[in-house]
Amino acid sequence: MRAIVNFNKNWAFAKQSEVPAQIGAEWEKVTLPHSFNATDGQDGGNDYYRGKAVYANAFSKDALPADYDRYYLEIKGANSSADVYLNGKHLTHHDGGYSTFRVDLTDTLADDNLLAIMVDNSANDKVYPQMADFTFYGGVYRDVNIICVKESHFDLDYYGGPGIAVTPKIDGKIADIKIETFVTNKKDGQSVLYTVLDAAGKKVAEVTSKETVATIKIDNVHLWHGKKDPYLYTAVAVLLDGETVLDNVHTRFGCRTFKIDAENGFILNGEEYALRGVSRHQDRWGVGNALLPEHHKEDIELICEMGATTIRLAHYQHDQYFYDLCDEKGLVIWAEIPYISKHMPTGRENTISQMKELIVQNYNHPSIVVWGLSNEIGIGGSDDDLLENHRILNDMCHEMDSTRLTTIAAVSMCKIDDPYLLIPDVVSYNHYFGWYGGETSMNGPWFDKFHATHPNIPIGCSEYGCEALNWHTSTPMQGDYTEEYQAYYHEELIKQLFSRKYLWATHVWNMFDFGADARNEGGENGQNHKGLVTMDRKYKKDSFYAYKAWLSDDPFVHICSKRYVDRVEDVTKVTVYSNQPEVELFANGVSVGKKTADDHFFYFEVENKGETELVAIAGECKDRSSIRKVDTFNEDYRLKEQGAILNWFDVETKEGRLCLNDKMSDVLATFRGKMLFMKLVSKMLGGNKKGGKKPEAMGFEIGPEMMAMMGGFTVLRLFTLMGGMADIKFTKEELLALNKKLNKIKKPKPKKNK
Fold it and tell me: What pLDDT shows up at residue 678?
């Protein structure tokens, strides 16, 4: 039987581009998992280290188990390219920072050894991702093992796979389980013992075969049925030479059927099963991507507490342990490769290899139902090379896995007649109406239009969200980064998206705040703050409880805006979320009233006078909060930029006239405002006259369409964003000069409700 030796300890680390002959005394001692961008990849400025670094480990062969023929190094994640050296000899190169890869060390092993892994996350034009709104943390950030096997063993060479693939075929109460094994150096006389165990570990069936594939029948099969019943079997394969055990592998699997219907959404085991959930980035505050098992476990528990039924694991392959947790918890998964944001004609081979790794390594997980081909790759339109790349990936997915479907995540600017929407089996869109532009009310009608135009294409919402930090207001507005606006936004989106049965899946962007070192916004640079939970997982924002009210069966009640204590108004609005039918609110022990709400959102008007203790009661559930009457607004609740060139309160305003504090959409709604910004954009698009380079934000060219998409932000916020994410800098004097021009333009008249 194989032996697996964990190899996480006793590593030395240095940022350098040379493979060492020996480890220097100045090298940092580290334990894996490790990321060299755990700090600088989260602090803003878009200046985190992107380059080469070396991990080295000196070890004796005697430290490894004896009596084995082959010794494989297994690296479960090294971003984004890696080279492995043993005793100065180059053994392998791997491109792709999110998947497992292995290399045979045997023929180079000596009595004393120096193992070196050079990782490189520097920019290039062939390995995805290169342009995206998240930090590309460098490092060997997942486990490293040495796998010891006999000459004949289950495969360790093919795309990092487990050497076993299980394909259940269900017909009523009977399941035929095809178990395929992949054996290296299989010899005459050797056989494979195939066993299926139930969830309690009891043997269901067993067969021995000289073939590398067997089919085992299960009568009265117990189906894997999402969160309702995530039942898992285990398949065990043992490689035998007579009575001698040479190797063994095992994998859990689930028996389930599913389909995605353009009218009725996701159907699991013949029953409609609404997929309502979140997207997840894997990184954490202070550790980057170098997560430990307890981090993954905490994430899955928070997602389950919220009541989600699905996760989009964006934008890359996640840790095997997390997929295992999804199987156990019954969450339905969208798994994808980091083919994202900007198509690179020189990156085709990398999309193919990363997709092969994703499928081979994750084939046995019942939680996964779709393979994601790309994300927002058509932001600039689709050309022939992009279309061909998608067709190759789509066909390959179906050839490698006939049991699952393919999908893409398109972005708002992608026209609904774009030909690349016709390539995958199902489609989803990333929309931010109500944050980057437009109004929250636009989301549902947009999907209705797509559904009417393409009635046979299943459509979902793969991203939607808005940012919130510890800023607060009683008059929330789009772009203000307050917890109150985020709560309002998600209340509206829940009502619009969850009521449309035809949406095959909806995924909030994002479950957790995550590192995006290029971002300079919200008063805390280096993060995307669209999470329902903070990056350190310590605070659940109010919007988390809005989803819990809709999706969870565990009784609860939650008073919103607990961090917003000081309030100036005489009567204030108090919002309460609960999945119970009725909520009663008390102010200093006196009932404000009882409310019922079909949408789970309960609104109360409370007199704001002195100190007020609030208590919400729903059935057996109770929650407390407090408010305080103040004469002037507490400025601690108002957004403050880090290193802002110009703050909102420095802006001169004139009654009835535009200024930097107005929304871009309002400015562009006026003829003079539109002309002013057309000239400004034209000047910006002229770029650097010497190099002719056009301005970019995280790799995207900034043009009129991009600026229009950002219409929900104030002019000042937009220019602050561009200063952080693009090579466009404005002085205070330039911004004040622009403000004077805006002060000469009348504000547009408010639209009348029809």
Answer: 79
